[in-house]
Design goal:
- This protein is an alpha/beta fold and 252 residues long.
- The chain has one domain: Vaccinia Virus protein VP39 (Rossmann fold), CATH 3.40.50.
- The protein contains nine helices and seven strands.
- Strands 3-2-1-4-5-7-6 form a seven-stranded mixed β-sheet, sandwiched between helices.
- Strand 2 (60-66), helix 4 and strand 3 (84-86) form a beta-alpha-beta unit.
- The longest helix is centred in the last third of the chain and has 20 residues, at 213-232.
- The termini are far apart.
Length: 252
C-alpha cells in the first residue's frame, strides 16, 4: 500500500468503527477457543500499523510480521512492544510448527499466489493450531478501493474454503459478515465505478467514508451485534468473509 494509506490506518485504527469492529470480531472468535491466560504463541501476519498486536497480547506472546517497512515503522511509533519482523507471507522466516495461532486480517487478498501464502501459514502453525482470517468478499464489490490497496481478488465463502482445504487446513468456521451494510456499500461501489473522477491519472484512493461520532458509534454497535450472530450461524452474504481454520493434529 502507499504511505498515505498506512498513515490513514495509523490515525483511524483506534477510533474508526471498521478497524475496531474487525479486531473485535477476531478476538471474540479467539475467545471461543482460548483463554486470555498469556499462554499462546501468536503470529499476526500483515500487522499493519500495530493496533491488533496490543489486542492479542492478553492471549500470549505475539509476533507482528509485515512486508512493508513503513507499516513496521508505524508499529514502532505506536510503541508496540511485541517483536516485529519484515516478512513475505509466502516465505515466512519462522520454523515449522511454531505458532498456536496465526491471525491474518485482510492480507491474503494482497498476495498474488494465495495458495502459497496459505501453505506457509499451514507450515508455521503447530498441529492443532488455528488460523483466524478475514478477506474482502464478492467480486461485485470490486472498485478503486481494491486497486488503491493493491488487492488481487475478492473472495466468496466456497472460494476461501476450497483454498484452505487444498493446503490441508480444516475449516471449522466460515461466514460472511458486515451483512447489514452490504446493500449500501454495493450501491456506493457501483456508483463510484460508474461516475467520472476528477484526479490525476493513475491516482487511486481507498474508501474511508467520514462519519460523525454518533454514526461511528452506531455502526460499531451494529457490527458487534453481527459478530454475535456470526458466533451462532453463518451469514449468507456480506462485505467480508471471516474464517477459523485448523491444522490437523492434537488440539491445544
Amino acid at each position: 500500500m502507499k504511505h498515505e494509506e498506512y498513515e490513514r490506518m495509523y490515525r483511524f485504527e483506534d477510533s474508526y468503527w471498521w478497524f475496531i469492529a474487525r479486531r473485535h470480531l477476531i478476538t471474540s472468535l479467539l475467545e471461543t477457543h482460548y483463554a486470555r491466560d498469556g499462554q499462546l504463541q501468536i503470529l499476526d501476519i500483515g500487522c499493519g500499523t500495530g493496533a491488533m498486536l496490543d489486542d492479542l497480547k492478553p492471549f500470549g506472546d505475539v509476533v507482528g510480521a509485515d512486508f512493508s517497512p513503513e507499516a513496521l515503522q508505524f508499529c514502532v511509533t505506536r510503541g508496540v512492544e511485541s517483536p516485529l519482523a519484515r516478512a513475505d507471507v509466502r516465505r515466512l522466516p519462522f520454523a515449522d510448527n511454531s505458532f498456536d495461532v496465526v491471525t491474518a486480517m485482510d492480507i491474503i487478498e494482497h498476495i498474488d499466489d494465495d495458495k502459497a501464502a496459505s501453505a506457509e501459514i499451514f507450515r508455521v502453525l503447530k498441529p492443532g493450531g488455528r488460523l483466524f482470517v478475514t478477506v474482502p468478499a464478492f467480486a461485485a464489490l470490486w472498485s478503486e478501493h481494491d486497486e488503491a490497496l493493491h488487492h488481487y481478488r475478492r473472495y466468496t465463502v466456497p472460494h476461501l474454503k476450497d483454498l484452505f482445504q487444498r493446503v490441508g487446513l480444516d475449516v471449522d468456521k466460515i461466514s460472511y459478515t458486515v451483512t447489514a451494510l452490504f446493500p449500501p456499500i454495493l450501491l456506493y461501489r457501483m456508483l463510484s465505478n460508474w461516475l467520472p473522477k476528477k484526479r490525476e491519472a493513475g491516482e487511486k484512493k481507498a474508501n474511508l467514508v467520514n462519519v460523525s461520532g454518533p454514526v461511528n458509534s452506531a455502526l460499531l454497535t451494529l457490527s458487534k451485534l453481527e459478530t454475535k450472530l456470526v458466533h451462532r450461524l453463518n451469514l449468507p452474504f456480506g462485505v467480508t468473509v471471516v474464517s477459523v481454520a485448523r491444522k490437523g493434529g492434537e488440539v491445544r
